[in-house]
Amino acid sequence: MIRSLGNEPPLLADGRRAPDRREVSLRWLSGTFLTGITSSVLMGVALFAALDGRQQLAIPAEAYASAAAEAHEDTTVVRGGRLIAPAIAAKPSDRAIMEVSTVVHDGEKEVVRRQPFAHVKMTLAANHVATEDYPDFDPLAIFSADEPQPAPQSRTGAIYGSDVESEVSLKTIPFPTGKSTLQMASGLSFEEVEENVRSNGSVLTDGNTQLAALYYVDPRRFSNEDADVDLTAGLSARVLEQNMTVSAPESITPQTEEFADDILPVRVDTTIAKALTDSGYPQQYADGIAGYISQQLGTGELEKGDVLRIGIIQKGEQAKIIRASVYRGTRHLVTVAVDDKGKYVPGSEPPMLDAIATAFDDNSFAPPPGQNLPRVYDGIYRAALSYGMTKDMTALIIKLLASNVDFQAQLRPSDSLEAFFSVADSAGQATEDSELLYVNARFGDTQTRFYRFQDPEDGTVDYFDESGKSIRQFLLRNPVPNGIFKSGFGMRRHPILGFARMHTGVDWAAPRGTAIIAAGNGTVEKAGWDSGGYGNQTIIRHANGYESSYNHQSAIAKGVLPGAKIRQGQVIGWVGTTGESTGPHLHYELIVNGTKVDPLRIRLPGGKSLQGEALAKFEDERKRIDTLLNNQTPDQVASK
């Protein structure tokens, strides 16, 4: 085997000896190292020259802003140059002023009168301009803002079930079940009853309609024998639905298909295809629609004052054109639609939209691109103030939505807010006496709907969801919204005593004098100095065996005394370091049926729930509001 492999040195073509392996490794390493250094230097020189001496990269927006002003002062932006997909939305009238009959208690009487109400549907992503300044975002202010307290009897009252002309006074008295003091009249004989029917029968009619009670009277008995009598007069059939199935409601998500109308006003003479491409539609769609409309219309030209109406099915970021119409002013010219095979066919005129008549209004808002949208907090305030709501009413909406909405998040184009509130007159401007009756808020996948209701038992006003459950949290977990969590519930080494001890609460650190708010509605059980190390202490008793304890306060708020009624979010004291404390903080305890529990981990019950008669009255009020908002007529609408 050894002889077959050979033991002679390798032969070289040039007669030189073979290099040692260590020499090869050293040459390879040196060459690689020198190549890397040379490449890095050359790349650095090229990059430095390309950046023209700048040593920091800039994003396109920063680079554009830092360029010379004359370099882009002639730049114009047109709709056809949009870089992202346009936010397509319908343009129905977004504010309605209506006269609604309401009932208000006035002593023993109930007064029914007509009052103006505003119904607004706000697209929060639109470029709204607030009519006045509004407060900056402050988590403490959101929870501790004092709400305007309603009068003992609500100023607005409840929605009445029928319309009245001006004002009607109603008085309700118990039905007399005892012996009447009036003398009983003698009964009518059969002849007297028949005579009354003969003489008063004509009164029991309303035009050609006869009261149902007369259908049981033989018409031949009270008519001439020669008269033709229709025995079937007044009889009617009523059709009852059988085996009817009600499908469960489908939750609305960003991927839910929605229909929208995109209204395109034509401000200069142009072609159909150019009007569509200038509005951001792809060239192939614009050419297809324009070609078929031109066949039906006889021309592909549009005049100044025409309106294009594009019907779209939108699902997330994808949109599909299913209909297109052309109007000359408000007069319909032609409509084309897409059939099941995806081809354009002649279509019937769609129902008229108010947005056709207002297409050329300059005050219509268009949602800006997504990257420019403001925070949710700013979007709510700007939209609400621009639609005539007051700052107090907007602050109330913010407070009611605080447990479900992240106000620091950026708005989405689909975020919206619908509100129904009383106003002073047909101008639709709310005042200090205005009251908020209904809110429907949609933020992303979360939808929150609540109604105002005055409890007939204690007269308190609150807001409840569709099922009659209060929209407010039962208890807040943090009575110092801008405090810093320092110590949790459980065993720990006491910072003063120096040995392990059960920490029966949660510590929230904050500067001395920071406001402390009540975790929930309740009654003050104790307010004063505690000799056990808690310092200034306040204990509030809540419903269902819950108590909250606030300790080490620098001072207790005026009016917080034993027996006083406290509202959730009300300022009850200020952060301090009284008692056994090493620094300013709030030691917050939650007590359930006499046992101290972890405020951050315990599962808290929901807010107040209506029951019995109160729940029945709330459901009636809710149904009336829903019916009113869903059935408003077009002549009640005032475009914003």
Main beta sheet: 10 strands, antiparallel
- Roughly how much helix do the residues carry, as a percent range? 10-25%
Basic shape: flat
Number of helices: 11
Radius of gyration: 38 Å
Q: What structural class do helix, strand and pairing data support?
A: alpha+beta
In CATH, the topology of the domain at 92-164 and 367-472 and 607-631 is named Nuclear Transport Factor 2, Chain: A
Number of strands: 29
Question: Mean pLDDT, rounded to whole units?
Answer: 75
Assembly annotation:
single chain
Would you kindly provide a written description of the structure presented here, covering whatever features stand out?
This is Murein DD-endopeptidase MepM/ murein hydrolase activator NlpD. The chain crosses the membrane at residues 26-51. By secondary structure, the chain is of the alpha+beta class. Among the domains are: 92-164 and 367-472 and 607-631, Nuclear Transport Factor 2, Chain: A (Roll); 268-359, Nuclear Transport Factor 2, Chain: A; 484-597, Glucose Permease (Domain IIA) (Distorted Sandwich). It is 20% helix and 27% strand. It has eleven helices and 29 strands. The chain has helices at 2-5, 21-50, 60-66, 139-144, 190-200, 272-278, 283-297, 354-357, 376-386, 391-401, 612-630, and strands spanning 95-106, 109-123, 158-159, 167-171, 205-206, 209-210, 258-265, 270-271, 301-302, 306-315, 318-328, 331-338, 344-346, 416-422, 436-443, 446-454, 461-464, 484-487, 490-493, 500-503, 506-509, 515-517, 522-530, 535-541, 546-556, 565-566, 571-575, 585-592, 595-597. The strands form six sheets. Strands 18, 21, 22, 23, 24, 25, 26, 27, 28 and 29 form a ten-stranded antiparallel β-sheet that branches. Strands 1, 2, 3, 4, 14, 15, 16 and 17 form an eight-stranded antiparallel β-sheet that branches. It has a five-stranded antiparallel β-sheet with strand order 7-10-11-12-13, covered by helices on one side. A hairpin with a 4-residue loop joins strand 23 (522-530) and strand 24 (535-541). Helix 9 (376-386) packs antiparallel against helix 10 (391-401). The radius of gyration is 38 Å and the shape is flat. The termini are far apart. 26% of the residues are buried. Residues 53-93, 362-370 and 633-640 have low confidence and may be disordered.
